[in-house]
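Tokens in:
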């Protein structure tokens, strides 16, 4: 078995165990307002970090592509205007496509 498959299986097992741990947490822990707030904010922080990294990198190098940055800027404006998530995605994609079509890639 190759090292890649061992890594995939180990990661899958770790994800399963993490999910199982989440299901076995007592209700009193989950009822804590601080824990509830933490659980609400962690996915948002992780998604924001992933989006930021994907915007300015390609592989292991820094890439400041104007089309990507335009899409991210448009998404941030849409979020500030409290647009629904689907609208944010469409606005970001349209801005990136327009910037790319304008030769800013």
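Residues out:
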């Amino acid at each position: 078995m190759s090292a890649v498959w061992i890594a995939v299986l180990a990661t899958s097992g770790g994800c399963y165990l993490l999910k199982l741990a989440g299901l076995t947490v007592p209700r009193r822990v989950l009822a804590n307002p601080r824990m509830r707030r933490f659980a609400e904010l962690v996915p948002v922080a992780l998604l924001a970090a992933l989006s930021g990294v994907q915007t300015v990198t390609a592989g292991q190098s820094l890439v400041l592509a104007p089309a990507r940055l335009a899409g991210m800027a448009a998404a941030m404006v849409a979020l500030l205007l409290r647009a629904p998530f689907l609208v944010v995605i469409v606005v970001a994609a349209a801005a990136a496509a327009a910037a790319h079509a304008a030769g800013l890639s």
